[in-house]
Structures are given as structure tokens and as C-alpha cells.
Design goal:
Chains A, B: This is Chloride channel protein. The structure is a homodimer. Chain A is mainly α. Chain A is 54% helix and 8% strand. In chain A, the strands form seven sheets. A three-stranded mixed beta sheet of chain A has the order 6-8-9. In chain A, strands 11-12-13 form a three-stranded mixed beta sheet. A two-stranded parallel sheet of chain A has the order 1-16. Chain A is elongated.
Chain lengths: 738, 738
């Protein structure tokens, strides 16, 4: 029975080159190169517009092997059956109750975090703008406005530097909106550290700094991420929660959206494994979260009991129709920029420098725009403008450009939607749109916590309003809404949930159809040129993301061609030494092993008996559950399901478990612990069929057998994710270790 | 190779009695008994409250074999692969486009039907109430009010008789709300004739008659059913639409609800097989439908362009908290009543008589209540009352009871929600609640097209308002809303979609939490006593309905115990005579046959090669695709996938295909036509695992194999649906042919 576990990497297959071969890895360590290139930071940005992206090698055509997959399949081994038998009817009901409680808790906590972010941003930004406003007012007449500019730049840079430093040095995964990561997580890809407490703290502080620092960012994406962390954290506190990580997610979305929007978002964006109870629980948690937020915000605003603030962006009621070419342009530019960033800017200090640079440029550009703007508007009585800047306008008037840029982006959006006709002149809107477009595009992807929702809405609202004014239409505000929807749709390309969100935000079902048509047009137009922003970023990170369906025209591919083989299998009764060797092999790092019954010669692949996971084997090794010991420890406690659960989610690495030379010769009986009925398919099964099984059941390993039920291969997530429909038909991505 | 197909009924298994044995079938033909019992119609209703339901034999513990299952699995045979290979990229895009067009068409048609129903009901009911109102006014002082009563009774009875006759004699499946049937259809059970054009016509006319006839019914359920028929009809027009039947459904729900409500409804209520594209298409069709409806209704009301009518029930904004015991009582009463109906009233003429009786009683009771009511209210200036009855009130006043009962139920609901405090006195509301409760309970299940949504809302609104008045609260209208939500939740038990519908109807997210809590409380309280109304009716029809999850504690059941065996299998190359004999066997009527490769002795069960469907075999027989003929018709056209599609959905019965004695001796090669990779499981697979596979992939047949891949059994829907969690743990339903 020696040499039973074949030492093969199941990522290297006979009929193709080994992983990533021939493609320069972008995250290489060419440190010497950097120093030469730090000096020409600006040249790169010039390049980013001029150079053709195809000439730059990047990892979009690779599939990273560093991401692990989540496993929603239940190991129905004997321990599990025993536990179920012991459990009473009452026990089930308690379990059910506790799940609802967990959901309520998640909702409450998420709502509180959202509150915290809101209140802190409101106060800090208010303080900042007040200081600058007073300063500008003081110097407007005496003529030292350059001092005001410096003050503004310094304040912004300071905030952004703090936000950028904590992200770059403490938790890089907290950069960006977090939505691509959550999308992957929902899809079943385990992104390392994405749901840690540290990530949450950095995210919350980071997003406060970015927004207060005046960057062209929103706080919605990071809030979604925060909600997901809370949800995963709370549900991981209980050990049966493998599936719950997932159950939990998009409460915070509710903050922006409403109710159904959040549920549909989780549905649209990931949900590789769905059931009704899940929907209910997400919905419930969403409700609680919205309620908590509204409750505390109304107390904060000294109107306790007034719950009439159903979201941050309750726009109004509008309709119209436009499209989303700008979205595609945004995404293409951001794509080039991201490739440049991957290539050149991946040292934390460089990242911080870039963020501070963007903050300074944003402040300077804003100031310049306000300074040269001559769009003076009379101060209304309703005081829609939070921080009206008089500057060079007559008394009783304010600078209209300042309303758009001297404000948090969220307030600007609201102003663009709700200000009466004539509040902005076309030149102001035109200049603002163009400037803000490039600023937002530059900003997304910086090493700060930052969402792209609000900036997209702002760009769209500005050009929508411009459009409305140019056509001399009565209510430019409604064009602002449609423009905002189109721009957001053109950038992130979520039609369904965005429609619901927009409809819920406007509170009028009747405008659903125009909004949906706008979003669909934006998506179709945009998709013609380039993918959605989130998908681009997911691709650039080489995540093995599974889409909803297998690529069309892939029915001719069969499991035989897709699967990895040969497979490392274990016997029903296996030698401890073999198991330890296989688990210790860092070059493969397999996570699931088919268990086979084999003839004693061991050359034939055996008949499938079950599937055992790395985590289970490690627990067994840790508890030294060896056949030889069974006799000597009759009085010892039997291993229970609880022992496996306690090890979740962070079971110890194999290196931490000491196995003596004597013990290596012992045998381990896997019968009781393996999953005795893993899902299998035959070699002739088509790729779409395998894909459907994999996706519908949330699998991590799917065993391929021949007509005699002998194991011939194993299909994992990366085997399916590598095929995609390119311009020339079916294409295959290469696998890379990074 | 003779006698290969074993003639076994796979519904009769060795270890249990044959189907339905020992249980009297309720739909028996004891015609003699009826005549004796017609005379004591009233006694039965008395019985219905007194007698204990457990003493009455009914078919709730049976599972009918007459329902077929829908099949969402794709037969990936060689013809399919060839067709895919031929299809260009362009072709796929066209197919995609045409699907969206179909959805748009569905939306438009459904919206038009809803318009039609609305307008006709509005006009006819208006006419009826005007005539009666004038009549009553004429006779109030002269004192011949009994003539008015007779007029009212006659008018109502006439309408209801027409509605009842067309349902009872032409299309019995059009009875009721249609929601239980659609729920089953979404679940994957093919209810005969439920999506036929004839059903649609009868449903539309029937619901108009019922509502105009003054029954305690609503028109929302039938509208949902109409939407489903339109959707199924249009998508069946195209031959690839097997899956589309399903894709399409709940547009009309939108009429009541809004956007997300409809989508969530389909999700909550059935969706045994779900994907993202589907969601989008349903959503799109919903949008189109709502838009069409609003557009035409606004033209009808001479306000073209005014789309501000986002639904029929745009309630207002409210909050509070109550529960749903009344719902359980309603369901229990209706359950007993339905059992009585199944037992005694199943001849069409009796059914019509009962419907007319109910109509007459409803009119009489309404008249009596108005007559004896002394709740006079001053006529407001806003004229909320559509048909104010003065009766014995002073001039300038109207009878308040008449507002509640002398009106379509929908208008009554609106009045209860929106009338200012003091419009109703408590006695009026109390009497109305009690009377209407029993009337609605009696009405649901009559042989007329009738929904239970609006009556539930009405009962709930009445007692909610009563509750509000008794607690002397400022705004009884908001209690009416919460009461309505609770009552509806208590009766139909859909928490998620109802919350969304209510929230969307009130247009305020903030009241989502109270409404949801109310609905959940109502559901929990109600579930403690009895199931939801729709579920009761589904159970009473013995439909093999699959719930979302397998019953808890069923992990110890394995596929070996669940499956039907032995299985009728075919060889890869099979004798035509054998096939014809198996297909002609009316006692089994199997629909899927595993194809096996077998040793020549034919005693062993063979290794699994594929799965072939009855419909495919019939097409093959019809085209005489025999091995012997292959040589002689080399110049003949090869069979294509199109030939199979053309046969869908109504392939000819086997009896219509003539097979000569010579041809019986021919052989048929199934290799090219069978599905070569059907899903299989091993005998040890647990019930929940089989269930999950079945549900997630929308299967109709799941083959059970042993460790040598030999076919040992077949799992179909009824094998899974028969297990349910009763009071004493896992219970098994019996199978019956009816």
C-alpha cells in the first residue's frame, strides 16, 4: 500500500503548458526598476491615455490559483447522521430561532455602523467646509486667496493621507469600494482577509477620511463591505455557519436603496447557492438595518419618531431616456489606469503619494473652477446650499460652481436633482461634468476606501441636467435623475437591482420603465465596448469567478477535457505517513481528496467511496484518530461533529501538528468521517451540465468517474472559470500561482 | 433480447400496499347518493362547523399520480450538439433578442387584459349599483323595499349564475383564484389545462361576473392566472420554450403590487429552477405590463400622460402591530367546507346552485345589514362614497354601512383606509367584520373565478379600523392597513412578497419593519394551527408539491428506500415491438426510460448509458427511424432537433401511431437521440441530497445506480413529495391514481 497518493499537481495538465508559463507575472519583484521610474510619475498618466492597452502585459488572461473556493456542500458523514438522530424537534426550532436572532443582530450592528459613518462624515466635512469658507470670505476682498487654496489643499491632503496610510500599510484589501470583493465572495471565492474585523475598522476610518478629504468618492460601496464583514463575523461566531457567511450580505445596500433592492442585489450579484429561507433572512436583516439607521439618525437630528427619511438619496420623481457611452469611456480609462497601477505603483509609499497627489489636485482644480466661474445665483430662501460661497458675486448671491464642488458629493447630487430650473448655468455644468469625470476616474482604484456609486450619480446628474437645460426643458432635475441612472448603469452595469434602487429611491413605480430602459441601453451600449467596472477589477485580479451560465457553444467540451487529472486519492484505510506527506506538499495544497476502495496492488484507480476534506484530515490528525489507538483508548471520548466545527473557520496548518515517526506507520480509517455520497459525473458530461451542477449546488469539488465508478478526475472552480467566450469563440485562460 | 422491458408499475413497491388501497376515493361515482342529499344542503353547512374533520375521509393524505412533472433538464443528445455547432454567434444573439421581445409582448398583453377586466367591472358594477340605488331611493318612502331586495338578489344571482355556469360546465380549472395552480406550475407540476386559452377566456369572463355579482371576492388572483396563461401561451408559440412556460409568470401581480413584489412572488412561491436572466426577463415583462396598464387606464380616465396610478391599492402611510388568529380560523373553516364540497358537491349543476345561493345570501345579508343599520354620517364634500344610500337617514346624510357593503370590495378597502376618523361607528364595523368574514370564507372555493386577496384585506381593514376606534386612536386608517396586512398574511402566509407589496403600495420603506413583523407574527400564529389557504387547497388536490427543502431529520433515508424499482429500461438498440408495448401500457404511463447496455442474456440490470423520454420515442416511432430502414432511405432527410420541437408541447398519443406487425420486428437505435449524461446518484445518497439535486436542477427523472453504474431505481417527483414532517416525525403519503 505504499506510494498510494500520487504526487501530482492537478493544476498542470498534460495537454497544456504549466501554469502561467511564458507570461511575465506583474507582481514580480523588480524593485530596481521602481526607483528609476518614480521620477516620471506624470509620464505614466500621459501614457495611460496614449498607449494601447494590448501592448502592456497584464494578468487579465490569467487565472490566479491563490484564491480558495467556498464549499456549500454538506458532508453527510456518520457523525452528522448521529447528531441529527440525537437532535429533538425542539432543538431544530431553537436552531431556527437563533438564526433569526443572528440576522436581527446583524441588521442592528450594520445600521449602527452606517450611522457612525454618516454622523462623523457630516460633522468633519461640515467643520472643514466652514473653516475654508470663513478663510475664503476673509481673503476674498483682501486678495490672499492663494492662502485659502493652500489651506484647502493641506486639509484635504491630510485627511486623505491618513486614510491612505491605514489602507496601504495596514489592510490593503480595504482599498476601493469592496464591492468586487463581496461580489466574488458571494460567487463562492474566498478572498483572503476580506471579512476580518481589521478590514472593517480600516474600511470605516478610511472611507471617512476619503470623503472628508474631498476626493471624488462615495461611501456606499464601503458601507456594503462593512455590512458583509459584520454579517460574516457574527455568523462565524457560531460554528455551523459555513453557509451563513453568505447569507448575510447586503444589508447596507439598503441604506442606499430600500428593501427589495438589497435582496435583488445579492441575487443579481452573486448568489451561487440560493434558497427561500435565505431570502427571508436577508430581507429581515435588511429591514432591521434600515430601521436601526432611521431610528438613530432621527434621534441625531432631534426628530425622534420621524422616520420619513427612507434613504440617503430620496431623489424625487422624474422620467426620460438617454444612454451610457460615458460609462464605457470611464471604464476603459480606469482599466488602463489600473493596469498602470498594477505595473508601477504597488509599493505602499507610492500608493500613499498618489492618493495625496489626487487629493491635492482635486482641491486645486475645484478651487480654480470656483475662482474662474462667473455663475452667480441669488440666494434662495430655502437655503438649499449648505455652504454658500459668495466670492466675487454680489451681496445676496452665491457662486453656483461652489455648490457643486464645495460640498460632499452626496449633497451635490441632491442639489442637482432638486434645485429649481436656472440654479446652474450650462457652462458651469459642462466644465463640472468634464472635470469631475476625469477626477472620479482617476480616483477609483486609489489605495483608499472609496465607492464609485455617488461619483457616478454626480457625473450623470450633471450632464443630465446640462442636457435638460440645452433642450430648454421645464424640469432639468428629472433629466439629472435619468442621467445619473444611466451613468451609474453605464459604469457598474447592474440593471435589475439598480432599477429597483432607483425606483425605490424615487418612490414611484411609474418611472420604473423609463429608468429600466435607460439602464438597459446603458448596459448594452457599454457592454459593446468594455465590461462593467467591477468585472474589470475582478478580472484584473485573476479571480476564478463563475458567471451564471457556462459560455454558450461549450456543449462540445466534456468533463474529460475540463477536469484535472490524475487526482490524489486516499484509501478507505490510509497510512498516516501518506496523509501527512500529501497535506504537507506545499506545491499542490489540495483541499479535497476522493476516497477510494482499491485492490491491494494499488495501480488501478479505485472505485469512489467518498470525499474527505483537508480540514477534516487535519482534525483527525490532531486528535490522533488512528486505528491502532482505537483499542488502547476505549475509554476515551469519541470524536464528535463538534470537534470539526470548533476548528472552523481557521483550522491549524499541517505544520503545527506533530506526527512522530511511529505514528507515521499507523493507519487511519476514514469511513466514518468522509462524505460518503459526493456528487459525481461521468467523463462524457458536457461543460454546461457540470457548470450547472457546480453552480446550483455550491460545490467546491466535483468528482469525475468512468463507467466503472473509478475516479479519473476532479473538477474544481478554476477548471470551470478558465473557459470564457472571447471574440474568436471559446477561449481558455492560463493558470498562475499568484 | 426478448422481454427486456420489465412490466412493472413503479408506483407499486414491494414494501408497501398498492396505491391508495383502503382509502375510499372521494371522487367516486355514487350518483344515487346525491339525489337523496340535495335536499339537505343546509344541514351540510351546519355539519361543517359541528363535525370533526378527522372523521371525514378525504384525500389530504394521498398523493395523486395524475399530475405530470415539468422537465427543465436539457437532453444533450447528438442532434442538440450538431445544432449548436451549426449555430453562429449571430444566431445566439438573435435568439436572445427574440426572448426579450417575447417578454415585452407578454407584458403588453397582460396589461391589456388587466385593463379590460378593470374597465368592464367598473362599468357593469357602476350600472348595477346605480339601478339598485335608484330603486331603493324610489321605494324608501313608499315602503316597498322588499322589491329592491328582490331586484338586488336577482341581479347578483344572474351575474353569478353566468360566471358559475361557464366555469362549472366549460372549464372547471378556471375556478378559484388560480394561485394554487400557478404555485404548483411554478413548482414543476404540470396541472392539466391550466394554461390554455379557453381557461383564460373563462377566467376573465368568470371573474367579471363574480365581482359584478357582488360576491365577497377580488380580481387579483385571477389576474395573476391570466398573466401566466398569456405568458405560457406566447412562449409556447416558440418551440424552444419548455423552460419559458415558467419564466414568465407573475406580471399581473404587479397590478396589485409594484415591481419587486412580482419578482419576489415568483421567487417565493415556486421557482424550482432559477437563474439571473430569468429574473431580468420577468422583471422586464413586469415593467412593460405595469406601464401598459397605467398607460391605457390613464387614457380611459381622460388623463393621458398622467401615470401617477402605480397600482389599484395605493393605500397611504401607516404603522402598528397585530396578529393573525382570524386567518387560521378562516383557513380551518374553509378547509372543512372544502372537504364537504369535495365529498358532496361535485356535479356542475350543484356547484352552480351553490354559487347562486351564495350570491343570493350575500345580497340578502348586505341588504339586511344596511336596512337595520342606524349609522348615519354627513355627506362630505369630497364625495368619497361612490353610491351614497340615504335610506332612512336625514337629508344630507348617508348610510355608513352601505359604504362598506354597497360597493365593490376594492372600493370598500380604499374607503376603510382613507376615510377620516368617525366615518364608521364601531357597531357597523363589528357587524360588518363578522358577516363579511363568514361570507368570504363561504365564497372561497365556490365554482367561480374569485380571488381571496381583496376580501382578506377588507376583513382585516374592518377589524383593524374597529380596533383603532376602540382604542380611541387618532388615525384608525393606519390600523386598517395593518389589520389588512395581518389578515392577508394570516390567510395566505406569504411574508416576503406581501411585505414588499404592502411597502410598495404605501410607498414608504420606513413602515416596512412593522408590516413585516405583523406578517411574520400572523404567519407564526397561523402556522401553529393550520397551513396557509393556498397550501391547504394544494394538499386537498393531492398535488406532488416539492417544498424548498427536504423534511428535517430525513438524512437517514437513502435513495434506495425512496426510489421506485424495478425500472423499465431500454437497450441501446431496442426492438420496436417492445417499445410500443411499453408505451401502450396504460397502467404505468412512464415518461422517462433509462437506456442501458446489457449483456446478451438480459437478466442483469445493465450499465446506464442514457435516458430517453416518451415524447422522443413517439417522435422516433412516428418518423419510423428504424435501423432496417436506414439503408433504404439513405437519400431521405435526417431527423433533426426541429422534428422533436415541433411535437412539443402536445406530442400524439401512442395509440395514434400505426406500427405494422413487420415493423414491430425492426430495431431502433437510441444512441443518437437519448440524453447521454443524465444525472445519477448512488443508492446510499440521502433524501435531502437527492431532494436538493432534484430541486436545484429542475429534474423530472433521477436515476439511481449501484457501485457498478447499473440502474437499480428511478426517483421522480412523487417519490420525494410523499415524505413530509408530521406531528410524529417523518410521515409517508399514500399514492393514488386519481
Amino acid at each position: 500500500m505504499a506510494n498510494i497518493a500520487k504526487k501530482v499537481s492537478w493544476s498542470s495538465r498534460g495537454d497544456e503548458p504549466a501554469q502561467g508559463e511564458g507570461t511575465p507575472l506583474l507582481n514580480g519583484t523588480g524593485a530596481a526598476r521602481y526607483s528609476r521610474q518614480v521620477t516620471c510619475l506624470f509620464t505614466w498618466y500621459l501614457e495611460s491615455v496614449v498607449s494601447r492597452p494590448k501592448e502592456i502585459p497584464h494578468n487579465e488572461k490569467l487565472l490566479s490559483l491563490k484564491y480558495e473556493s467556498l464549499d456549500y456542500d454538506n458532508s453527510e458523514n456518520q457523525l452528522f447522521l448521529e447528531e441529527e438522530r440525537r437532535m429533538s424537534q425542539m432543538g431544530f426550532k431553537c436552531l431556527e430561532m437563533s438564526r433569526w436572532l443572528v440576522c436581527a443582530l446583524i441588521g442592528i450592528l450594520t445600521g449602527l455602523i452606517a450611522c457612525f459613518i454618516d454622523i462623523v462624515v457630516e460633522n468633519l466635512a461640515g467643520l472643514k467646509y466652514q473653516v475654508i469658507q470663513q478663510n475664503i470670505e476673509r481673503f476674498t476682498e483682501t486678495g490672499g486667496l492663494s492662502i485659502s487654496l493652500i489651506l484647502w489643499v493641506l486639509l484635504n491632503s491630510a485627511f486623505v493621507m491618513v486614510g491612505s496610510v491605514i489602507v496601504a500599510f495596514f489592510e490593503p484589501i480595504a482599498a476601493g469600494s469592496g464591492i468586487p470583493q463581496i461580489k466574488c465572495y458571494l460567487n463562492g471565492v474566498k478572498i483572503p482577509r476580506v471579512v476580518r474585523l481589521k478590514t472593517l475598522v480600516v474600511k470605516v476610518c478610511g472611507v471617512i477620511c476619503s470623503v472628508v478629504g474631498g476626493l471624488a468618492v462615495g461611501k456606499e460601496g464601503p458601507m456594503i463591505h462593512s455590512g458583509a464583514v459584520v454579517a460574516a463575523g457574527i455568523s462565524q461566531g457560531r460554528s455551523t455557519s459555513l453557509k451563513r457567511d453568505f447569507k448575510v450580505i447586503m444589508q447596507q445596500f439598503l441604506k442606499v436603496s430600500g428593501l427589495a433592492g438589497g435582496v435583488l442585489f445579492s441575487l443579481e450579484e452573486g448568489a451561487s447557492f440560493w434558497n427561500q429561507m435565505l431570502t427571508w433572512r436577508i430581507f429581515f436583516a435588511s429591514m432591521i438595518s434600515t430601521f436601526t439607521l432611521n431610528f438613530f439618525m432621527s434621534i441625531y437630528h432631534n426628530k425622534p419618531g420621524d422616520f420619513s427619511n427612507p434613504g440617503l438619496i430620496n431623489f424625487g420623481r422624474f422620467d426620460s431616456d438617454v444612454s451610457g457611452l460615458l460609462g464605457a469611456l470611464f471604464n476603459v480609462l480606469n482599466y488602463w489606469l489600473t493596469i498602470l497601477r498594477i505595473r508601477y505603483i504597488h509599493r505602499p509609499c507610492l500608493q500613499v503619494m498618489e492618493a495625496v497627489l489626487v487629493a491635492a489636485v482635486t482641491a486645486t482644480v475645484s478651487f480654480t473652477m470656483i475662482y474662474f466661474s462667473d455663475d452667480c445665483q441669488p440666494l434662495g430662501e430655502d437655503q438649499l446650499e449648505e455652504y454658500p460661497l459668495q466670492l466675487f458675486c454680489a451681496d445676496g448671491e452665491y457662486n453656483s460652481m461652489a455648490t457643486a464642488v464645495f460640498n460632499t458629493p452626496e449633497r451635490s447630487v441632491r442639489s442637482l436633482f432638486h434645485s429649481p430650473a436656472g440654479s446652474y448655468n450650462p457652462v458651469t455644468l459642462g466644465i463640472f461634468t468634464i472635470t469631475y469625470f476625469f477626477l472620479a476616474c482617476w480616483t477609483y482604484g486609489l489605495t483608499v476606501s472609496a465607492g464609485v456609486f455617488i461619483p457616478s450619480l454626480l457625473i450623470g446628474a450633471a450632464w443630465g441636467r446640462l442636457f435638460g437645460i440645452l433642450l430648454t426643458l421645464a424640469d432639468p432635475g428629472k433629466y439629472a435623475l435619468i442621467g445619473a441612472a444611466a451613468q451609474l448603469g453605464g459604469i457598474v452595469r447592474m440593471t435589475l437591482s439598480l432599477t429597483v434602487i432607483m425606483v425605490e429611491a424615487t418612490g414611484n413605480v411609474t418611472y420604473g420603465l423609463p429608468i429600466m430602459l435607460v439602464l438597459m441601453t446603458a448596459k448594452i451600449v457599454g457592454d459593446y465596448f468594455v465590461e462593467g467596472l467591477y468585472d474589470i477589477h475582478i478580472k484584473l485580479q485573476s479571480v476564478p469567478f463563475l458567471h451564471w451560465d457556462a459560455p454558450a457553444t461549450s456543449h462540445s467540451l466534456t468533463a474529460r477535457e475540463v477536469m484535472s487529472s490524475p487526482v490524489t486519492c486516499f484509501n478507505l484505510v490510509e497510512k498516516v505517513g501518506t496523509i501527512v506527506d500529501v497535506l504537507s506538499n506545499t506545491s499542490t495544497n489540495h483541499n479535497g481528496f476522493p476516497v477510494v476502495s482499491r485492490l491491494s496492488d494499488g495501480c488501478e484507480p479505485g472505485k469512489i467511496c467518498g470525499l474527505i476534506l483537508r480540514s477534516q484530515l487535519i482534525v483527525l490528525l490532531k486528535h490522533k484518530v488512528f486505528v491502532e489507538r482505537a483499542r488502547s483508548r476505549l475509554n476515551q471520548r469519541k470524536l464528535q461533529l463538534k470537534d470539526f466545527r470548533d476548528a472552523y473557520p481557521r483550522f491549524p496548518p499541517i505544520q503545527s501538528i506533530h506526527v512522530s515517526q511511529d505514528e507515521r506507520e499507523c493507519m487511519m480509517d476514514l469511513t466514518e468521517f468522509m462524505n460518503p455520497t459526493p456528487y459525481t459525473v461521468t467523463q462524457e458530461t458536457s461543460l454546461p451540465r457540470v457548470f450547472k451542477l457546480f453552480r446550483a449546488l455550491g460545490l467546491r469539488h466535483l468528482i469525475v468517474v468512468d463507467s466503472d465508478n473509478q475516479v479519473v478526475g476532479l473538477v474544481t472552480r478554476k477548471d470551470l472559470a478558465r473557459y470564457h467566450l472571447g471574440k474568436h469563440g471559446l477561449e481558455e485562460l492560463q493558470l498562475a500561482q499568484t
